[in-house]
């Protein structure tokens, strides 16, 4: 308790508040720009942190990371270009809301749900974080493989298209994920001698193409008068979520926060998996699941809550085990090392100002973000008033710059454009690119963790059923697959039982 | 005055102006504009951290901005390749580590020939990658681990932070020399290797980010893959001391394209020497458990040449070199 209070006091120092503000403001900005992600921004700012207090440095860098989760949803909602991988899901219902003239409430709810999730995550980190951190040790390749299988089953449920079409897209996504060097042998697969492809296709590059570029092509294919005219409301009240939005979003935000918090603790794709776990959960629990994909606010508030909670809980394994669960945390670890601080089990006792200060700063950071983001809703919504003939080329340019800036590589721009054409063809033929993209991300993790698991299990496939966590995850996956089937059987059986 | 006169007259003026500006540039001396320093790896690792630190200090010494750019991919070879094919004007350099220079060219296709396409500017540090086990492991010495792997083929599971790097191949060479058979579990980076070790999924790791878990008593070092003893661990033998065939230096340095002007090389040698010998740099390397180890262009070139040839021969003997 003394640690928590000390942390709050430390985070409330004027200098730390200032660095927290710089971090979250920058984070929002880079979240908006596709391609320029938090990893690149944080490494750009590393030299500045050489001259800062260690706690202030991590407070600022952390602000960039969870700030990007706020910003990443803005472009997802407005122009269907995910600013970050974990806001891909927001493209589904967030963008649909914007097309129905509800961009304001969508943006507002994205900010509010992130805020609430942020507070829940901070409390979680303070109360159970350090204890749960050790869970990462029990989550080896075997468990990750099982989690990914569960994730793939969920993807089928997300899709607005039929299950068969969704499965076809998943297969394509898994295939695309095999491009690049073989993880075990280093053999090159489908690279055609192009050096850039050695490391596989980039997630952000594909996302920019499949969503952003294909959206522009769709627009170009429509006649001027057919284009959906987006009504932009002028009164502030219409810009913010109304009472119905709130009553629909309450539980999704809570559930999303918990999912994000727990999955964020795990190594790998915790934040990303949590967003669509939340989406699937809400769709399953909804009274009218058919509203999903047509601008259901629950499909936005749940995932938005989960990505922000996960971005914060990812700090737990870093700070209390010294193990970065993702690339962004890897750079933050580097920043701490340069300061002469090696995070690990002893950080909370050796440097309580850093451990508790960073966690407490997230409380202030989230308050700043909501103050920063809500008034900007009006500004962002007014962007939609720009005529399509001007806005569309700008978005295309924005996509090209974003793809280039990831690795400063022109091949990535070409790949984004090719994916744009692919996305266009898929959408015109009734396929949904969302399962493709998610399967692409999970494919890499699945292949890697299955092969690791088999090596760890000395080649025996029983390794997946011998471990309790992996086994239960797989059982849930099978149940989810059988659920629709069971319902159909019930639907046949029930009328008969009623008649008797 | 006809049109031809106008054209030739204008051309003369333009030529004169161009000559004047290039003269002015030469007089201003090197460097007179921003310098690009490529890190061929992802942000956050030792390469990225040290390069950003050097760029930050070089900016003050050279009086020009030094811009760091991450061009990761293919084990560092994409970024180095981009610099190898750039103009040797002294404004584009790459940070390098040992593996893409002395190992990868022997085992994979790389977009440069380290013997011909690069100017080795200078070396700035060496790191360690020890063979480590969990603190409660029954293996007390490297012989314990090797004899276990010999009598239980495939039962020793291990992971390496940098696949196909010097420490990885040196460990493979050791296992073969000892007649031991182990299972290599591929991972992405040292953090993942340590996580697998701590979680009990594997028995051993060869990683360069061993310092924090070692300090906290989570792991035990059994041997060091490089030829230099791990700082503060005098009882941990090196592969070389143990008599195993490969024990490569894990060096970090800077390179430019082949044919750099000698003025540029001299300037960077002086700059790098000043940085590496500074207290601030020593402090940084202490924190990431590396050792500052300055080498000027001539020394570095000679060392790389020797390491390259030795590694090539050793890999060919092991049957690991590309055909």
Give a brief description.
Chain A has 500 residues and is an all-alpha fold. Chain A has helices at 2-11, 14-32, 38-49, 54-79, 90-99, 103-127, 129-133, 135-138, 141-158, 163-176, 203-220, 236-239, 243-264, 270-285, 298-313, 315-321, 327-338, 347-350, 352-373, 376-383, 388-407, 410-428, 433-456, 463-466, 468-499; strands spanning 180-181, 188-189. Chain A has one domain.
Topology:
The complex is a heterodimer of chains A (500) and B (323).
Chain A: H1 2-11, H2 14-32, H3 38-49, H4 54-79, H5 90-99, H6 103-127, H7 129-133, H8 135-138, H9 141-158, H10 163-176, E1 180-181, E2 188-189, H11 203-220, H12 236-239, H13 243-264, H14 270-285, H15 298-313, H16 315-321, H17 327-338, H18 347-350, H19 352-373, H20 376-383, H21 388-407, H22 410-428, H23 433-456, H24 463-466, H25 468-499
Antiparallel strand pairs in A: 1-2
Helix pairs in contact in A: 1-19, 2-4, 2-19, 3-4, 3-17, 4-5, 4-6, 4-15, 4-17, 4-19, 5-6, 5-15, 6-13, 6-15, 6-19, 6-20, 9-10, 9-14, 9-23, 9-25, 10-23, 11-21, 11-22, 11-23, 13-14, 13-15, 14-15, 21-22
Chain B: H1 3-28, E1 35-39, H2 46-62, E2 66-70, H3 77-84, E3 92-97, H4 98-107, E4 118-127, E5 130-134, H5 142-151, E6 156-160, H6 166-177, E7 182-184, H7 189-198, E8 204-206, H8 211-215, E9 219-224, H9 239-242, E10 250-257, H10 262-276, H11 279-287, E11 291-295, H12 297-318
Parallel strand pairs in B: 1-2, 1-3, 6-7, 6-8
Antiparallel strand pairs in B: 3-10, 4-10, 4-11, 5-8, 5-9
Helix pairs in contact in B: 2-10, 4-12
